[in-house]
Amino acid sequence: MEYMDFKEGKPMKYGLICGMEVHAELKTASKMFCGCKNDPFHAEKPNIYTCPVCLGMPGALPVPNKKAIEWAIKLGLALGCEINLFSKFDRKHYFYPDLPKGYQISQADLPFCINGKVETTFGPVRIRRIHLEEDTGKLLHQTIAGEKVTLVDFNRSSVPLIEIVSEADIRSPEQAMEYAQKLRQIIRYLDIGDCDMEKGGMRVEANLSLLLLEKFPEGIPVPIDESNFLPYKVELKNINSFKFMAAAVNYEMNRQAEILDSGETPAQETRGWNTAKQESFPQRSKENAEDYRYFPDPDIPPFRFTQAQIEELRNELPEMPEIVAQRWADEYGIEAKYIEPALESQNLVQWGEEIVTAAKASQQQPNKVFSALFNKKIPAKIGDPAQSLVDQYIALTSHEQLGDNELRTAVEEVMAQNEDAVTRYKAGQVQLLGFFMGQVMKSLGKKVDPQQIKATIETVLGS
Amino acid sequence: MSLNTKTLTEQKSLLEEKEVTLSEIYSDTLAEIKAKNEQLNIYLTLNNLAEAQAAERTNKALAGLPMSVKDNFCTQGLRTTASSTLLDTFIPQYESTVTKNLQNNGGVIIGKTNLDAWAHGSSTESSQYGTTLNPRNPEHLPGGSSGGAAASVAADMCSAGIGSETAGSIRQPAAWCGVVGLKPSYGRCSRYGAIAMASSTDSPGPLAKTVKDAALVFNAIAGHDPLDATSSPQVFTDFSRDIDKPITGVKIGYVYHGLEGISNDVYTAFEIQLEVFKSLGASVEFADAMNPQLAVGVYTIVQRGEVSSNLARFTGVRYGYDRTYFGAEAKRRIMLGTHTLSKGYADKYYDTAQKVRTLFREDYTQLFAQYDILISLTSPGYAKKIGASEGSAMFGELEDMLLEPSSITGLPGISVPCYRDEKTNLFLGMNIVAPMWQEEKMIQVAHAYEQATQWNTWTSKKGSL
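ok -> structure tokens follow
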């Protein structure tokens, strides 16, 4: 991939130090602090899923969504986090027209989860914290009757949002991408979020700076002491795909390397990503950093969890993808290329398990059945009954091999005998295909792969 | 005698015995409002539908009787300003839980009463709709922030009123207007729909002519609300359950004696009252409590911080008017609160204040290990003259000093009239505080005291010391 080329023609003088902040909306039925429907991306009109609470009306009060809190904790447990048994929500103040209360309910010093880890093929990335907050509304810039206006849609206001903050353990654009993809996989696998990046259901930000590699002949260690950092940090924002994120990190590395080469220090700032130009651009200087005036939200009493409650949530966790992969490889002998696609959801894994069970019961090798499914030798939709798939696999493998000519002759004979049906088929009665297949099988008088017959009929009729 | 001068309990029984009709009560009440509201500036908005609504609520506990509601409770379809012109045209689309409960139990909102703008103050002088005058003596302030509510009761312009207290805003105006003001345990009455002042101490509660009336209204508005996460699931049956029980053997601690800024005359007037409890068989002794002046600092920091946050939603994007419509007091509080929550200052101010708050809680735990009830003056003195709050940014905090310890700790308290100055016709109030969730106890003690003394102008002439 081209974005992985780093400053062609230049020696690798610098190494990347990168941490990430990932936001993901949770797909609870209702919003974070009120009973409104949580479905901002499918709302037919703006401001239909709103109430005094998510509109921030005077006197309205937030009541936290229990399910969202449980899900945030489950995600933490799935990522090996410690859970803060005492936790709370805080108010984070800033002004923006899409923030109806003038503050966002978030978590400051006592997030639900701390100290976790995400494994990547480049090494582990430590998770500093996972906290829960509310999403904002959305600004719509439009022209109405010739006048440029900004409208606010509060359907998204107060949708539950988790923020996952990593340590600065990421050392390459590829690792940054894999880390984010891994998080999405886990969130989807837990069935707690859709993580649609294009719509904004998942948002990634990278905090990065460079280091002179010559100081670290063995490579930049993980973790690394902050005293080694150069005195700047760039925050990359508004990136709506994994690919763009890797491209943006790569671009930044080049840009910062050039500045460092010239003896300067890159500015401490927030930068956005221009997809069309494939370059980053400055958004906000960090020098006038905002003060959010965090304080505990007096509307929401703090939470005291017991270890037993946490263990109960841990017990509800599914077997995580990494474990499934290991077990399928070790116990079932399934090849990695067939396992990876199944790890998208618990449903797929469950279906896979059913196929394995059915295969074993019929004395078939699960890997071969998977292979047949992946190579489309067996027509299948996700969720098709496992036993029928295995039966089809058995039929497929036990079919007598038939010369193409023999089959084609048989097909042509059937067509000649059923001219009327052929005319009707060509006129659009495609369901007659089944009739033709039956006739061909009868004429052949032996078991033949139905896919092969079907393909031949379609060839003959199409000619 | 006009029917509006009767107590809520009396009006109810007159209705039950069919001696009067609801429309006669409304007629007298509205006549009183018409005659005096312009001068006293008590109601900001009247509910034109009141009498029609009353007719449908006659079989409920509050019998369709007219109640005043402080104008910081959102009332659906009825303008709600918090006495700030910033909300001059705000007509809420939803009903606060307390006013919903009130109406479900037969109360009718006759009008919305004046307050210090955003409930910031103890005089109503920060109202952007003008000051309310004390009906007992119009040269004096009614107190605040529920000054309109207290005055509406004192002026017989309703059967009872709903107010809200953050620290003193029910009890102090009740004392200054010579009425009863009940501040419930924090979390007993839902804050949903009450425009937030300081969220961690805001407590809606009733103002009434008698302790019994206050308990009746309290019964109607209290209870757990799933829309308020700080509302308590504590159940109650009837707050007037023990009201007629004798207080023999009740251990009363008298706190806050000899503080600077309180005159000897006031102390003397108050201390004579201690004999009433003794004559009723209770014990009274001086109890050494944490200095309430420390609570002023704690409360000021916590409250200003919460105010600056709670008012952040009035951005100018919505509600029609921008932030220039905040009055001077609101601006002062927003600036102070913004400062105390700033990076580098939050530890110094907010966190320290919260620690001292915990010390007050511990102090009360100690006190209530020895006493069933704590009493003190409600306010350091009589109602001040009109104009007294001007130029005094800490006016309210000093007037409310004796109430702030119980407010920042969430305790329930009730203020009852305990002295009347014959020359000025102004009152002193006695603050009766109970442990959390024991409102029945303080109602019992307050009622016993009220019955035994002549200070309540509606129940008086029953003899006293």
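Chain B is about 35% helix and 15% strand.
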